[in-house]
Amino acid sequence: MKYLLHTVETTRLRFREINRTDFNFWLPFFQDPKSSQHWVRKWKKPEKECEEWYDKQFSRYEKNQGGMNALIDKSTGNLIGHCGLLVQTIDNITELEIAYSLLTSHWNKGYATEAAVQCKIHAFENSFAGSLISIISLPNIPSAKVAAKNGMTVDKQTVYSDNAVNIYRIHAHVYFGSR
After folding, report:
1. Cα(98)–Cα(12) distance, integer angstroms
2. Which of 39, 26, 44, 41 lies closest to 136, judged by CA?
3. CATH code for the domain defined by 13-133
4. 30, 105, 117, 135: which has the fewest C-beta neighbours closer than 10 Å?
5. Are 95 and 129 in contact (CB under 8 A)?
6. How many CA atoms lie within 13 A of 76 on its CB side?
7. How far apart, in whole angstroms, are the C-alpha atoms of residue 79 and residue 88?
8. CA 150/CA 145 separation, integer angstroms
């Protein structure tokens, strides 16, 4: 599980591994229609989506393919979302992605940017990859803004999971050159 941010903290957030007891705190993500507004596929029942989401994360952990970290608000101790480094295959190329999802009640507060920046720092300072990507559905303007604030620019447009997406990218030399 080399890509996880074990016990990393930012100003407002604490990263930790996800666990099964997070299920009921994350279920509202799948119950809120705003969470899925940028994806083409129709979601299943919220409980099934949440179960499959957690199964996928635990499978990633077991296969050393990265995975999401639980994002805990340090002031309340509550789970507010997930962010992590994921090994992805896009257009037959294996890449390391910065991915993030927040409960809608925590949108527009800078948490996604704070978490994504920390993932970038962690990945580059541990030499995990020469570049990092974020896969963002074309209509998902809020996530595109997070990627831009994280120093990423659009590298290409492609299709991922039946969605037209932009691949945002930042190279390590850009990150280290800007420090």
Report:
1. 19
2. 39
3. 3.40.630.30
4. 105
5. yes
6. 7
7. 25
8. 9
- On whether the CB atoms of residues 173 and 155 are closer than 8 A, the answer is no
Question: Residues 96, 128: contact at Cβ < 8 Å?
Answer: yes
Judged by DSSP in three states, 130 sits in coil
Beta bridge partners of 155: none
CB 50 within 8 A of CB 43: no
pLDDT tens digits for range 25-39: 999 998 888 887 666
Tens digit of pLDDT for each residue in 51-87? 999 999 999 999 999 999 999 999 999 999 999 999 9
Query: Would you say 164 and 41 are in contact if contact means Cβ atoms under 8 Å apart?
Result: no
